[in-house]
Specification:
- This protein is an alpha/beta fold.
- The chain folds into two domains: 188 residues, Aldolase class I (TIM Barrel); 31 residues.
- 54% of the residues lie in helices and 16% in strands.
- It contains eleven helices and eight strands.
- Strands 1-2-3-4-5-6-7-8 form an eight-stranded parallel β-barrel, surrounded by six helices.
- The two termini are 40 Å apart.
- It binds SN-glycerol-3-phosphate (G3P).
- SN-glycerol-3-phosphate binds next to helix 7.
- Its main location: cytoplasm.
- Pfam families: TAL_FSA.
- InterPro entries: Aldolase_TIM (IPR013785), TAL/FSA (IPR001585), Transaldolase_AS (IPR018225), TSA/FSA_arc/bac (IPR033919).
- One of its GO terms (molecular function) is aldehyde-lyase activity.
- This is Transaldolase.
């Protein structure tokens, strides 16, 4: 499962890249709005930092297929290869996806709440389909189950589309999908930081340090003991 950051603040992206095995960055219009700058300025900064080989996902705003296509072309032109155009799975979105796929564009089908949306996006040529796990949970359904079923639908129908699960609020949701082997998960910084925040680990490491310092002296390590 690819491990992707769902955020647009460059400082925080740099921090996460320094510590975690990150495969790329996803954004959406709400995430970009938090930066309060021109979207292309922000996105170009991210692209420069993550490099040409990493995935960068950028969403279109238009509601009609023609507008989505035009935005997709500018997104690709400005941000280069390995940029995935995020298209919401509406009727117009499916129309845009079919044409963009024929052009060879990288497409991430987004705003997915149902298995049927994902199936249609896969048939329309999307590389990724992004079910909103926690938002589905908040509707009283089971977001992890929906994401797993979408994964199965792709495999059983010989579609190359992968799940790019999004909208996580806790580690358990992420873990369940890693165990199932879905293609990718995009996760916000606060949820990423919670993935390994375990008091038991902190206590275990502190006990090791205390024992070692008892042996060799305060502040000593395997470097200078
Ligand atoms: O891009 C869609 C996804 O990232 C939404 O996440 O946390 O706003 O539900 P969230």
């Amino acid at each position: 499962m690819k491990f992707i950051v769902d955020f647009a603040n460059l400082d925080q992206i740099k921090e996460l890249y320094a510590y975690y095995p990150v495969d790329g960055v996803t954004t959406n219009p709400s995430i970009l709005a938090k930066e309060g700058k021109n979207p292309y300025e922000v996105l170009k900064g991210i692209r420069e930092f993550i490099g040409v080989n990493a995935e960068l996902h950028v969403q279109v705003i238009s509601l009609d297929a023609e507008g989505m296509m035009q935005e997709a072309h500018r997104i690709q032109k400005e941000l280069g290869a390995n940029t995935y155009v995020k298209v919401p799975v509406t009727k117009e979105g499916l129309k845009a996806m079919k044409t963009l796929a024929a052009e060879g564009a990288n497409i991430t089908a987004t705003a997915i709440y149902t298995q049927m949306q994902a199936y249609l996006a896969g048939k329309a040529g999307a590389h990724y389909a992004a079910p909103y796990v926690n938002r589905i949970d908040n509707l009283g359904a089971d977001g992890v189950k929906v994401a797993k079923e979408i994964h199965d639908i792709f495999k059983k129908n010989d579609l190359k589309t992968e799940v790019l699960a999004a909208s996580f609020k806790n580690s358990q949701q992420v873990l369940e999908l890693a165990k199932y082997g879905v293609g990718a998960a995009t996760i916000s910084p606060d949820v990423i930081e919670g993935l390994i925040k375990l008091d038991s680990v902190t206590c275990a490491v502190a006990a090791f340090t205390k024992d070692f310092e008892g042996l060799c002296g305060k502040g000593k390590s395997m470097l200078d003991c």
